[in-house]
Amino acid sequence: MLKYRGNIKDQWIDFKYWGMNWLSILGLVASNPCKVITSLFKYPVIYHLLKVNHLAKTLNVDRNGTALLLSEINLHYFTKGVLRQLQTFVYGAQDSILENSMIPTEIYQAMDLKVICAELLGNLDTFCDHRSAAAYLDAIENNGLPSDTCSYTRISAGVFASGEMPRNVKAFVTNNLPCEGGLGSNVYYADNLDVPIYRLDSPYYFKKEDSLDAFVEDIRGMISFLEEHTGHRMNWNKLREVLERENRIDELELERWDMAASEIPALASENIWMQHWWHYNLEPGHPESLKWYNEQHEHIKKAYESKEPALKNLRYRTVMWNTPPLMFSGFWSWLERCWGIAMLNDMMTYGHFEDMFIDTNTNETMLKGLAGRWCSHTMSRHTRGAVEDFLPDIWQMVERFQADFFLVAGHIGCRSSVAMTGLMKEECRKRDIPICIFDYELLDSRVCSRQGIRDQINHFMFNVMKAKPLDENLLVFDDAAAW
Amino acid sequence: MIIMMKLKEMEIFEALLDKPENELVEKALREGRIAIGYNCYLVPESLLSMGNAFPVRLRAQDAGGTELATHYMSPFICSYARSILESALDGAYNFLGGLVFATSCIHITRGCHHIQELKVNADKQSFFTFAIDTPRKTSNNWLRMMTKHLRSAAHMLTVHYGINTSDEALAKAIREHNAFNSLLRRLSELRKADEPKISGTEFHTVMVASKTAPRDMLVQSLKQLIAAAERRAGIKDYRARLMVVGSIFDNPKFTELIEEQGGLVVADRYCFGSLPGLEEIREDGDPYENLARHYLGTCECPRMMEKLRERERSVKKWEEEFKADGIIFETMKFCDLWGYEALSGVPKLRNRNMPVVRIEREYALTGEGQLKTRVQAFIELIESKRLNKALAGYRGTVC
Description:
The structure holds two protein chains of two kinds.
Chain A: H1 8-31, H2 33-42, H3 52-59, H4 65-90, E1 96-99, H5 106-111, E2 114-117, H6 120-128, H7 133-142, H8 151-161, E3 171-175, H9 180-192, E4 197-200, H10 209-230, H11 236-261, H12 270-282, H13 287-305, E5 316-321, H14 331-339, E6 341-346, H15 363-375, H16 378-383, H17 387-400, E7 405-411, H18 415-418, H19 421-431, E8 435-440, H20 450-463
Parallel strand pairs in A: 1-2, 1-3, 3-4, 5-6, 5-7, 7-8
Chain B: H1 11-14, H2 23-30, E1 34-38, E2 53-57, H3 67-73, H4 79-89, E3 96-102, H5 106-117, E4 128-132, H6 140-161, H7 167-189, H8 200-211, H9 219-231, E5 240-246, H10 252-260, E6 263-270, H11 287-298, H12 308-321, E7 326-332, H13 336-351, E8 356-361, H14 368-391
Parallel strand pairs in B: 1-2, 1-3, 3-4, 5-6, 5-7, 7-8
Helix pairs in contact in B: 3-4, 4-5, 6-11, 7-9, 8-10
């Protein structure tokens, strides 16, 4: 049930998007009810995505005004984006490509290919309902995978092992990202798929010209592979259109950051992360992406000009490093309501987009721009990236968003980031930046519960920031069984 | 337990394993030579053997604990990488003139990042660190990149120590490397006999020693060892021939523990092992390209994205060549690459009726009791399978 938000306008927004989300879902069902229902039985992993409206409720507890509107818009476009992927499940995967995340998806758009991203469903499921993760994580552990492996890739391998990922695809495109768990899981998929496979190797020191050149050639190899095995041709003009839209999104993104960095931030929390994550990973330069950005931008600008804050009770500004806790979708809402903390940027979002506009003049420049861009993606540049980028980016982010403290989501499965813990602490001490590292497991709330996360942050806020909570009832509460 | 006459020729090799700055390293340093540390199979030893340089592969069996390294890298990082960092912070690698590392896995890469950031050896004016960006594919574009990176690494030797790193200098280092490896291959061949003339522990000791001391100083000792081993009687009293497959494995005491239970380790397919590791490097043509081609081509680490089938074929080939009765699949805790490799590999081994035991372990030799029990049980399993096989065609009564 929709809870009354205290004013008619917000209530209408809540209701409108609740209805629109259901309509979008029903649109897919209505297109072929039999196939959709059969797919639900065949791929039960889809089922948890129906809980999207509950996710909206979790993200938006006590939110009003523009913050609420932005979140609702986000979730609606998110729903539509997921439905685009699900169509491939429903209407047969035989014409599609199975891919891993962090592959230049602009190429698929330019070649007019249908794609299934292996990591998408397991991770989104957990975001919608954290209890859904256990079955898939256990499935792959029972097959012999160590339980300490990063759950981002582990859950996808679990979905695959459970037979809930289409295997009758045309081809499989994989890579060495986002981490070694990703590389390992890709080898596992490849081993169990009887389709042509292309492996893209993202270099470590991509700022070296020869490394980047090798990667450009690798992308070229991927295009030839796709042309050979799908029958689709590369359309360079279409790629240009995609990249031009992407460049425009970069401009908007940088403007958004400026508005978030201002004295009265016009947007904060998952409203920054979610949109970025989708556009920069799954559908960069997609027409829907630009539409989504434009629509949001209008509202953010209005809020910025009228000095409407993203949080009613803004007490602290922070930026976060590492992946946000997907098993705790109410995380941002809790930070806001319990402590008045606004998260103004995060590692998944932050990048040097001012240097990443792609020159669309020739096919060569487009490929080189694409290569540089995907090498600079957060999991490539930050998480597993060179120390020369990792630490300076943190300090730039802290300074740019005037953070009062630095929050680190210490996902214990993320080797590359946890391996930098000591250096981060020492540098923060030198720079007099309070740092809060909370340990947790990205998708598995059995390793560290949501209350476990809250306890660690509460402890920091009381003892280091000497803060008083906005709502003491939110310090400790039982939500272990909640979605 | 395997009993065999101890060879006095082994003593020199055994003495080299106690600490990184061993007797031969000290001697070389006194002679004005430069020790260059490295951390992975993908850093070619010949590259670091030009002029008066010599390679020392990083080990840290004497690290004791990893308290400081755990502070920096968290407890969720492989204990090999943490032990290396701990040793570096303790000053165990102060003798190194440089460190060339490969970005092979994130654990050792981050460990080396810490060595850079915490300015280990920074008081030594010529000390340098260099990272080789090692690709995960072997296609020509990546081969070209690796070749360039190898040249850049060699250039560091020239800049910091004035070492001649011309093609001719490298070609000479490759020839010497090949000659030394041909001796190791002779020793390795002794393991293939039904009554092998060298134990797994001895061979493991020689392999590790040859990576932690100047090889040119070991040539005579190695020749003497081969001659002595060839002269002695072979080992008969083993219960099973084993192959060890897995990640970093640089402590022969592990092998000794396995052999104490009656399993003879005949094949070593792990980091610091000889499978792969003793293949001849091409001597004609561009030596830098030859190195890149050789190491990318022979590397059997699960980091190589396209080579799962090849790795499986190699295991099968070596298993047959060395007549292994069973496989110990050892992986380091927190190693994602080997974790996924085991996920794919172990069931396939079982499916073709190869006895296999999977052991997840720490870098340091800990939990010996548990390890002994598991190895004993595994050997019993192999024996019972052998017995069942022998009885399979028997139709009469047993007594």
